[in-house]
Specification:
Layout: E1 2-9, E2 20-28, E3 31-36, H1 45-58, E4 64-65
Parallel strand pairs: 1-4
Antiparallel strand pairs: 1-2, 2-3
């Protein structure tokens, strides 16, 4: 399993209207299987800077939709 930061349109959290959130997305065989809210901390400032770079890269990719995840995919909190 691997993961990265992605923007996910979580309409279910906003009464069916678009709601774009930066999330940690988990993959198996390159298919998104779940997501959770990102942790934006680090052990030191250099690590926090790396996390910010990873999150910035997510803004360069097309948003995922909730439908991109399997119906029974676990959603972590």
């Amino acid at each position: 399993m691997n993961w990265n930061y992605r923007v996910v349109n979580t309409k279910s959290q906003n009464g069916g209207e678009d709601w774009y959130c930066l999330q940690e997305v988990y993959y198996e065989d390159d298919k998104p299987i779940g997501y959770c809210d990102p942790c934006t901390g680090g052990d030191d400032m250099e690590e926090l800077k790396r996390v910010f770079v990873w999150m910035s890269k997510a803004l360069e990719l097309p948003p995922l939709q909730e439908e991109d995840f399997e119906k029974e995919a676990p959603r972590e909190h």
